[in-house]
Amino acid sequence: MSILQIENIAEQDESGRRALLDLNNAHARETSFLTEPHFESLLAGAFSAVCVPKAAALLIAFDHSGPYDNPNFRWFSERYQEFAYVDRIVVGRAFQGMGLARRLYEHLFDLARQARLRRVVCEVNLDPPNPESDAFHERMGFAEVGKAVLKGREKTVHYLCKPL
Question: Ranges for the N-acetyltransferase domain (predicted)?
Fold first, then answer.
């Protein structure tokens, strides 16, 4: 098995899915904490929910018509008709610097182009800051298109977009 092999999260066995949930929750400060039912709900409605086994990395994205109740997703929905929204991308600490995030994003870009979507969008924390993610997204061709303070979450984010 290649470290760059991308698989659907839905095809992972129970222990693999649990490991991916644990990976997400180890990075809850940057993403958000998920319970198992919430994780499964995200997977069920996702446009793309992929991973690099064995819980090395994951990416979950929704398209513009996705059944996702989230203030950041709504922000993009109010402004754009066609998009793929990256809800979360997480790379395990032991696997950082190996190009996994880039590979997962390139996979998503290919899927979005096949679906004739015009852009890929996401948000990155400004407060608390996430400078590594900011630098990564800039290298991937994303540009800022807005900002928001997420009340009740103690976060400020900026919204990013990459035209396809």
Answer: 7-164
Model confidence, pTM: 0.94
Cα torsion through 41, 45, 46, 47, rounded to 10: 170
The string of DSSP letters for 113-151 reads HHTT--EEEEEEEEETT-HHHHHHHHHTT-EEEEEEEET
Q: What is the dihedral of CA 72, 77, 79, 83, to 10 degrees?
A: 100
- Residue 36 inside a domain? The answer is yes
Tell me if 2 is assigned to some domain: no
> CATH number, domain at 131?
3.40.630.30
- Whether the CA torsion 48, 79, 156, 36 is positive or negative: it is negative
